[in-house]
Amino acid sequence: MAVHATIPAAFDVAAIRAEFPLLRAHPELAYLDNAATAQKPQVVLDALHRAYTETCANIHRSVHRLGERATEDYEAARETVRRFLNAGSKQEIVFVRGTTEAINLVAHGFAATQLHPGDEILITGLEHHSNIVPWQLACEVSGARLRVAPINDRGEVDLDAFTRLLGPKTKLAAFAHISNALGTVNPVAEMTRRAHAKKVPVLIDGAQAAPHVPIDVRALGCEFYTFSGHKVYAPTGIGALYGTVEWLNRLPPWQGGGDMIRSVTFEKTTYNEIPYKFEAGTPNIAAAIGLGAALSWLESLDRAAAEAHEHELLVYGTRLLEEIPGLRLIGMAADKASVLSFVMEGIHPHDVGTVLDSFNVAVRTGHHCAQPVMDRFSIPATTRASLALYNTRTEVERLAEGLRRVREMFA
């Protein structure tokens, strides 16, 4: 990993932390489980409160002023997501519950209209279960085949193998931007370029990337990009799917109900225009507004300084953990972001996590919904510390000190 010598002075971590009520209320807590979910700044909580106390009404179908205002706030959030991703149009932004639902939506549409027996979907060995299981389901109903590009001992995708697996039968390549289990940053622009060279459309799982790196879907040129709100300081139960106008129009609706139709008779239903044909029923209106608030808040920060701060913490944490006897880091990709995943000799990760919790250090243990990644390294689970822009060097030092105590207890 490249080392950033210093944290840019413009990035004031103390000021950032002051915006998070939970962090203010629990200064003793080192929260290092951000890859699972991030804490929420006051501006997001305020947006949720306003949505329920000042503008609470259903959207799109109301003629009263309250409903019109709720609709305006909801659609303004869609515009914020469009800007965050640099999409060309609000039509290309579908609100979903999160990345898992977004990938299921696309997989369902591919199974229904794009896949035939013998076709192939290409993923990688780094994927979260949410970018594996939906494609397995799609393959089961269509007769298509799932292909997997392997990863090397550092936790990086074998790009030569990825390229070789792209062929005339490949109907879609779907891969993570950043690995949730290892923190590997995939060269998604290059992977997209190679897929497009074989005329293969691309879906990128950006769940772990959205909090850490700027995203430009037009520069990437991908056909689909998705992320979850709760990992990017927004509420749970909301996320977004970007799809090009061409592809969203090609895919059929995956759920039926209100708001996704133009007309309904017992003989035939015609569907609403994109993105609404994918948003059946009353959506999570307040959470979408909260997502807009979170992304606007993130955009107001110096993203380059935040990224440099997180990277400095990662480099610092890597060095501290490498000094602990019996600890083995899993995943040492040349390009990593925010994740320290490791095992300790003779100590189960669940025991590590439980002891760390007694020292007020919150980490994740288990397979991280990435069992094939664990299988690749012949381990059942890891302990994962994951960083956010509000974390500090002191918290990373507390993690290292807690791990030394773990080692002493199980010696």
Could you explain the architecture of this structure?
- Helix content is 40%, strand content 15%.
- It is built from 15 helices and 15 strands.
- The protein has helices spanning 13-17, 21-25, 42-53, 65-85, 99-113, 133-142, 159-165, 188-197, 217-220, 245-250, 285-300, 303-322, 349-358, 371-376, 393-409; strands spanning 30-31, 93-96, 120-124, 145-149, 170-176, 202-205, 224-228, 239-243, 261-264, 269-271, 327-329, 339-344, 361-362, 364-366, 382-386.
- Helix 13 (349-358) packs across helix 15.
- The longest helix is centred in the N-terminal third of the chain and has 21 residues, at 65-85.
- The chain is globular.
- Helix 8 (188-197) links the parallel strand 5 and strand 6 (202-205).
- With 411 residues, it is an alpha/beta fold.
- The strands form four sheets. The chain has a seven-stranded mixed sheet with strand order 2-8-7-6-5-3-4, with helices on both faces. Strands 11-12-15-14 form a four-stranded antiparallel sheet, with helices on one face.
